[in-house]
Design brief:
Helix 1 packs across helix 2. The chain is 52% helix and 9% strand. By secondary structure, it is mainly alpha-helical. It is globular, with a radius of gyration of 17 Å. The longest helix is centred in the first third of the chain and has 23 residues. Bound molecules: iron/sulfur cluster. The site of iron/sulfur cluster has 11 residues, from loops.
Length: 187
């Protein structure tokens, strides 16, 4: 195995261990914590049950059970979409946000800031690797909105070229299930 592949495998195992520890501290399963973390980063086209299923590659039944647990624990709320009647958005409660602040993702972000590396170069390399593996696995990429082929800055007010809807600034920094690479060959 190449050194980099070995290092990535170790990192993956370490992160899995951290997720398991965080989940156990709160009486949850790892997937519960991972779904909360995903929802904290998902935009309004991606904070729905079907997007959760796509992101984690699990069935809708599994997602339903996961969401039910998170609701019972007071970590998740369902909100109807004001414009699309049957669409339901999943929102985090203050308790969920507090849980995430002390979770593996915060520790990982802190560790990343201490690396003597150019963050943009590291992100570009990891993004390329992730996109390549997702292509091989036939999965959606879930990239950041502001770097999407459909993203239209339009001066001060950004728009989504796919849906034609305006995008609030905060939404443009989140990940989206409809994301398309502006550089299909490299992303
Ligand atoms: S511009 Fe792309 S990433 Fe942003 S909302 Fe539209 S499809 Fe999703």
């Amino acid at each position: 195995m190449q050194h980099n592949a070995l290092l990535l495998e170790r990192l993956g195992a370490l992160i899995h261990q951290s997720v398991r520890d965080d989940a156990a501290r709160h009486g949850l399963l790892p997937i519960h914590v991972q779904v909360l973390s995903y929802l904290s980063r998902a935009n309004r086209y991606s904070d729905m049950p079907i997007a959760v299923a796509e992101y984690f590659g699990v069935t809708r039944g599994t997602v339903s059970q996961t969401l039910a647990v998170l609701e019972r624990k007071g970590l998740l709320v369902r909100e109807s979409d004001a414009r699309h009647g049957r669409r339901v958005h999943l929102g985090l409660t203050p308790s969920a946000r507090a849980l995430l602040r002390e979770s593996w993702i915060t520790r990982l972000e802190t560790a990343l800031t201490t690396l003597p590396l150019d963050a943009a170069t590291l992100e570009s390399g990891l993004r390329g690797l992730l996109a390549g593996l997702q292509r091989l696995n036939g999965q959606r990429a879930f990239g950041v909105c502001a770097r999407c082929a459909h993203f239209q800055p339009d001066g001060r007010r950004a728009h989504c070229g796919l849906t034609g809807e305006p995008l609030a600034k905060a939404q443009t920094l989140r990940i989206c299930r409809e994301w398309r690479s502006p550089h299909a060959v490299t992303e």
